Amino acid sequence: MEIRKVQGASLSEIDTDPLKLLRKMVEIRKFEEKIEELFLVKGTLIGPAHLYLGQEAVAVGICSTLSKEDYVITSYRCHGHAIAKGVSLKKLMAEMFGKKTGTCKGLGGSMHAAISLEDGLVYATAIVGSQIPIAAGLALANKYLNKKIATVCFFGDGATNTGAFHEGINLASLWKLPVLYVCENNLYAEFTHITRSLSSRSVAERASSYNMKVIVVDGNDVVSVYKAAKEAVTEIRNLNGPIFIEARTYRMKGHGVYDQAKYRDPKEVEEWLKRDPIKIFKKRLIEEGIMDEKDYERIENEVTKEIEEAVNFAFESELLNFEELYKLVYVE
Amino acid sequence: MREITFVEALREALREEMKRNDKIIILGEDVGKYGGVYRVTQGLIEEFGENRVLDTPISEIAIVGAAIGAALGGLKPIAEIMYMDFAMIAMDQIVTQAAKMRFMSGGQLKVPIVIRTQYSLGRAHGSQHSQFYPSWFVNSPGIKVVLPSTPYDAKGLLKSSIRDDNPVLFIECGVLYRSKGNVPEEEYTIPLGKAEIKKRGEDLTIIAVSRCVQEALKAANKLEEKGINAEVIDLRTLVPLDVETIVNSVKKTGKVVIASDDVKYCSIASEIAMTVMENAFDYLDGPIVRVTSPPLPVPFSPELEKAYMVSDVKILNKIEEAFGYKLS
Ligand SMILES: Cc1ncc(C[n+]2csc(CCOP(=O)(O)OP(=O)(O)O)c2C)c(N)n1
Ligand SMILES: [Mg+2]
Prior knowledge:
The structure holds 2 protein chains of 2 kinds. By secondary structure, chain A is of the alpha/beta class. Helices cover about 40% and strands about 15% of the residues of chain A. In chain A, the strands form 2 sheets. Chain A has a 7-stranded parallel sheet with strand order 1-8-9-5-4-2-3, with helices on both faces. Chain B folds into 2 domains: about 180 residues, Rossmann fold (3-Layer(aba) Sandwich); about 130 residues, Rossmann fold, CATH 3.40.50. At the A-B interface, strand 3, helix 5 and helix 6 of A face helix 3 and helix 5 of B. Thiamine diphosphate binds next to strand 4 and strand 6 of chain A.
């Protein structure tokens, strides 16, 4: 099947308030910067955490086309998807702290924080690729029940090398399941560049061999992502599918919060940092007269305040009582 | 009462439950058009249609994964994994996904799936089609593990498994598929977590699961001829485990033999033995005896396979050795 490219979309091509997109991206950016600080500077948080810095345009572009009812299922790199889908920053932060007010009562932590049924955040898994067949099942249920909602499944470039990817995608395409697969190609799986792991010429080409619609989108341009997602989600909601989006983007920092990412070519990093999705979107909004520096500062200040409140909330929240754990293994 | 086979009993359970609940779907390899490799799902696609009985590619990860997703999306999927050996391929989905979801989501998610599978020990299927590893799953909180030994139990337990809101691994035994037994026409279910005393006795207790229940019963009949009255307990479900029935029996008999087809080291038998130690130590008047498979892959050669397997004779020999009975 033919691979479509979406890039350089203009603001007139999208039907949403660009300032809302910007605000969400800033929320993710500030949230992740705060998490980084809580790990590295303050030593408050421990355990694995995978930041979404640099990929904000993907989560925001895609999730801004969704409603609460639509399903999102993702990986451990999930904070961005959770925020973009509309989870409360307080609940999300409390989950990082392992508190009972967190999305998963503190039993999931960073890697599973994007499980919040009331927000349509169905699942976040720490096993690479495992969400891909599960997403097919969600879509199967929607098709069977004639439930006109979308299922969106996020995963990384590295996940396309797992058996779960191939089995899941094949099944979804074979059964024409209404699911939007979004591969966030950030060029790295942990510490290894994609050229050292992918035999196909591209992720998109690999996906297209499964006989489904494939779109390659500039993952650092929120407008293009939104445009591509809007069309795809509309089709999925009509219970057609699957559709595959490869969003080409970049992880601004290391794989996990402790990773200094020294293994990357400095030139590569420099080139991509020039394309920081927030920086380019901000510049564009100012150039097109949609906002000015002052407006941007106001957004930043508001978000910073909200995140401080979230941190305080998390600090002050209580832990789940150990005895309660026994009640959470089985449905009684 | 009428007699039907194990396979027919399973099929009836599936059919009746599918009629009762239109959210039930079945998915697996060859389960639809062909009717199932062991004919368990025969006729279901004709009766319930292609939307409810789905032939899948050879994709164990996707079979279980899609079942999990469909369950999260509001359906009641029953996945068939043709051989227990192939469940190993879907281990991540069963153990690391389905079993953990409820817990690590803080109780938000439930995953009401049934995974039906069977082990073919005793059918000359060789090392890669005969494996029986219940302890792998028992060691994973969040999943229930059910092992029927008769057509009656197969039907009643499968119905209860389907009505349960948790992931259930339903382990069938291939050599029992053609066995026949009494199964009433009327509706019944068997609760998960209730062992059954298949034969009452006072002199010793034989605890078994799946195929070994039949071997235990044969052994018990031979013991009876010698005037020894064995009680035979079929655990029926390993999770939840009916500790009460085990302990009550041991209190009465003081002697315990445990028979299971898995390899002895870290086996189900080991766990039951320790459960007895912890709960009824003071009542024991002899060693606890395990009759299990030896620490070998299953040999193909039918005669060697027979020598490998737990049998009534092996159970009797162990009893003779441990308790000083003169049986021969
Ligand atoms: C099945 C499995 N193998 C290995 C790992 C260890 N691991 C965690 S993240 C990761 C890299 C995944 O890369 P990618 O899919 O590109 O996602 P990204 O982290 O870039 O978002 C690896 C190998 C794992 N969690 N699961
Ligand atoms: Mg990657």
